[in-house]
Amino acid sequence: MTGPEVVAGAVVYIVGSTLQGVVGFGANLFAVPILALIDPGFVPGPVLIVNPLLSGLYTWRERGHADRSGLRWALTGRVPGIAIGILALGAVSEDRLGALFGVLLLVAMALRLVGVSPRRTPGTLLAGGCLSGFMGTAVGVGGPPIALLYHDAPGPVLRATMSPYFLVGTVASVAALAVSGHFGVDDLLLGLCLVPAALIGVALSNPLRGMLDRGWVARGVYGLSSAAAVALLVRSLA
Fold first, then answer.
1. How far apart are CA 21 and CA 58, in angstroms?
2. Most exposed among 33, 109, 191, 223, judged by the fewest C-beta atoms under 10 Å?
3. How many Cα atoms occupy the beta-carbon half-sphere of 14 within 13 Å?
4. Cα–Cα distance between 120 and 25 in angstroms, integer?
């Protein structure tokens, strides 16, 4: 990977991290399809290694409002999802990984946009955690299945539950990727290059939280991410 590609990836992640701080989600949903277009090496390991840092900061900021029972069910469901994600990465040839990323990212966008409103029960939380673990481990975007289950939760509860979910869940995904040989030293170093970008995004999000129209910003994230995912899919299948 060239220097300009790393710089471009850092700029993309600054924007994604800022969006997450403003909207409550969106760092990887926005960044992953664009990063995969810049260089597939960014996905999934390097972007996942930054998530615990972001999630830890936002967990501290939103502490005290988490749905602890729902969090336990979702994390339990994530375990088999991680295993399925590892199997998918092993079954897909390297030159077709871009197609896998594109398809799963479009599924993630569809889940956010289709307006499905499932109730939160132990069963749906287990299923949502499993799907989230699969998508998060395979392509680095596991938020939509859990966010859908908390569609009716107050903002503080949504953010306070999702942040520790990703803090624990992404650490588990990275560990599984490392054990299975899908995460190495190069991935770690590239992920560390994105850490300053994440910190800049967190800092930028603080003054912007009350200034930007969150509904408009969220729609922009969906639009840009969907366009990038389609471009990635077309390029991979060409």
1. 8
2. 223
3. 12
4. 19
CA distance 210 to 213: 8
Which amino acid, residue 84?
Answer: I
Query: With 90 as the cut, is the pLDDT of residue 8 above it?
Result: yes
Whose CA is closest to 178, among 4, 23, 72, 48? 48
Q: List helix spans (H) across 62-139.
A: 68-91, 97-113, 122-139
Q: Tell me the whole-structure pTM to 2 decimals.
A: 0.84
Residue 218, pLDDT score: 65
Alpha-carbon Rg for the chain in angstroms = 16
Residues 6+ apart with CB under 8 A from 39: 1, 5, 9
Cα 123 to Cα 126, 127, 130, 178, distances in angstroms: 5, 6, 11, 29
Quick one: tokens of 205?
Answer: 């999000």
